Amino acid sequence: MTAIATEHDAALRFITCGSVDDGKSTLIGRLLVDSRAVLQDQLASVSRSGETDLALLTDGLSAEREQGITIDVAYRYFATPARKFIIGDAPGHEQYTRNMVTAASSADAAVVLVDATKLKWREPGLELLPQTRRHTLLCNLLRVPAIVFAVNKLDAVEDPRVAFDHIRAALETFTEAAGVHARAIVPISALKGHNVVDGKPGWCGYHGLSLLALLEQLDVTPAETTEAFAFPVQWVEKFSSSADTSRGRRVFWGRVATGHVQQGQPVTVLPSGQTAIVAQVLDHARQPREVHARHSAGIILDREVDVSRGDWLLAPGAFAPSREVSATVAWLDDEPLVAGRTYFALHGHRWVKARVKRIVHKLDVNTLAEQDADHLEPNGIGHVELALQEPLATLPYARSRALGALVLVDTATHKTAGAVLVR
Fold first, then answer.
1. C-alpha distances in angstroms, 333 versus 285, 381, 397, 419?
2. Is the confidence at residue 244, as pLDDT, over 90?
């Protein structure tokens, strides 16, 4: 089998998200326990008064256990006979949206939990919680390939079937209006285990797959091998002096963002614009071979060229570096985003200064309407225009997760301020 075919074939990276206390940590605990991924001593350590508190299997910080909330993203690993999984338990609190965005940016799938007990489930035209909408929109903006809704706590309502029918209709209306493709809507009880690992046919009128069986069938995010070659330099290694003048004396290490690299391939350096030929390509084990997107590589050029950490090696003529960027931004800072402010922008491993030229509009997460705005509040989503101090080689995020994403960092506090998705 080729390296491309086997890459992450079995491991699915997914996150759980949604509003506060929707049962995300409990769901992951149920997945771990029912798939037999938890040892007896681990179960004993999260037992209270003789009963297992499933949420404590992922809420590992002392502050999380004290407050009963998830603050940071907790990752857990487990496997079934069908495949391996990496789970990210994202916090539901609005103030920790930045943590959720971090987890979603690398996820293959997202399970958005909806707590039936928090909604007016008896009403056919019920309103979803704002955080359910926000997390769904963020997952869609971050190009999470598969979004699955899990309607939780249906065991705690008087009429589970009516509740599920009404909530499912509300989710379908919302996703259609938002242009979000939901892979499935599954009724579950994370506490009792209904439709989580083992199916409960006919419950709530649902006859589909259990949540775990559904996750086992999802595909991982494909590597961006069809785009032109792009390579952010992460580390420069200098080896001992050599009499061999047919190549440079440094290895440029990093992970291939898009395309592939092989010996004899021409490259252009950003920002200097110098060109060279690839003399040798090393894989992660320092073996010479062709390397494709999402794999680590060491690149040796045919001559000494000024290349430093943060520079990019690009396919000649394939990109048009620009100082102007139109983008969607998910604002994560506590201070509002206003036009005229300057931030550090990180693209790959390259830092440049970025000034907010204007805020085109903001998105109302409840109505999905675009509204005129002169600022973006914390956790807001909007469309902005950025002016960069130096040109960057970007692609629309819809084409490339690797080249279409930037991070804005406050120049004074050095806090992560915004997740930028190039339009």
1. 40, 12, 22, 10
2. no
